[in-house]
Input
Amino acid sequence: MSSEQYHTQKEADEIVLKGVAASPGIAIGTAVTLKKDGIVVEERKAEPVHDLERLQKSIDRSIYELEKIYRTAVDKLGQDKAAIFEAQLLMVSDPIFFSGVKTRIEAEKKNVEFIVSDEFSKQVRQLRKSDNELFRQRAYEIEDVKNRILRNLTEAHLKSKFEGKPIVVTSDLTPADAVLLSRNEVLGYVSDFGGARSHASILSRSLGIPAVVGLKDATKHVHDGMKVILDGYRGVVVFNPTEESVRNYTEKKEWCEQLDSELLSEASEAARTTDGRRVLVEANVELLEELPLLKPHGADGIGLFRTEPLIIDAESIPDEEMQFETFRKAVVEATPNPVVFRTFDIGGDKLFVGDHDEPNPFLGWRGIRMMLDRPDMLKEQFRAILRASVFGKCRIMYPMVASDEEVVRANALLEEAKASLSSAGVAFDRDIEVGVMIEIPSAALMSKEIARHVKFLSIGTNDLTQYLLAVDRTNELVANVFDEFHPSVIRTVKLIIDSGHGAGIRVAMCGEMAGNPLATVMLLGLGLDEFSAVSSMLPVLKKIIRGTNYKSARRFARQILKLDSADDIKRLLIGYLKTHFERIYHTTISEEYVE
Output
């Protein structure tokens, strides 16, 4: 969903803001603002001995706080989901990082606040330059650690206890906020910044607390005690709602909760159309904390396991053993269903692997092209995945492929990795399946040729759309041009599916379109074999598929392919979903489609 904000003046002072649906649910209550005024850091001369003592006290206090948060998270969510706080503890306890800080304090004789802020900010700036959303989200978490240390240096503390049952509105919802504030009877979270895949959003979903993030300036429109409606299905927040809005959302909240209960009770049922076509509905996963969500949401496996978070969390290229342990956990959790591991899709920022300044990261050194230039790194990752394949069904997927030559080269390196394990007597699945993520127009046009070298194709609609339309979806000046329902996108998806089927292999989709209920029947009719989306959307997708006749869906898709306007396509899709799945339409379809 777009993070673009809009305002409407329905009546009096009612303000409607649109952001990112981070955690489903509807909350109606009063606001409490969690103020996070920026800590002003000034550069000045200081006495090193005194500031080194202050730094150590701040580190000790920060470790104490994070250990407390970690224990709370374990109690509420379990060991796996609490792992994010272990990562923050490691960051605060990192002797190498702080040895650099201490060296600077002694050498430069500047105040500890300035040195700490400057050192952490270097990492934050680097991450925020990334074209990878997860890297950018990581920047907020490092900023959170920095602010924790600075607060403890200045002995400032954030409020974490509230009276009543509030909806918390803040500039930036951190993982610690999500856990600590849940000790109150919090009805929901509203945040200016953040994304659906951030740790804080994932923890909010696990805690069952509705959340909308990425609103940009919600904190400017709210004050303590203001009435608020939060719609975590559509990513909408209403400040100072009218009585009519309250009545409408109260009614909607009741039947949304009934639908949620119904969907979860049916989640384990197979996604089979009314005329018998079986479709797989799998989960996109990038954090180990998401693994416990697979079974409750009826995942038929993991259709996309993003491996880049390993680099973010380790802040260096993880070795084979570290990768293997992560992959093994994912495979064991998903068994008996398969896991598709996408090899490192590090963007043009090349974090931790180079210093070259990338002028255009979206068209630069990234994905498989970068990994082919680092064959040892790629073979190490292959070995880790192959070793994990002993514990369950694994598949390997190459990202950012532009030609079949790249696939041939990657396959050759995979054979070398297999040979090295064989010579060492290490067991692995010798028939492991390899696939390609089709997200570049050249790969789409050459998908027939690429399909000869692999066992499956997976369509990445996010990048495919921006490359087809020449639109940087992160650029607000042209973001309105980005439209996954553009006829060129739909026709390219059909081309890829036909190419895969022509070669006798399966075709999946792991881009955002796969998780959009508006597109489900169309994609089914185009012949898609596997859908892969965020876990929370899987029960909805399965419900739609089980209620659809495949032959009718094929006729519907042919009708879509004849249209030459994105608006016409969306109108047809909206009409179909509203007619056949009205309750799902009203709970899951973004406001951008229904205005």
Remarks:
- Confidence is low (pLDDT under 50) at residues 1-11, 348-355.
- The radius of gyration is 24 Å.
- The longest helix spans residues 48-77.
- The chain has 23 helices and 17 strands.
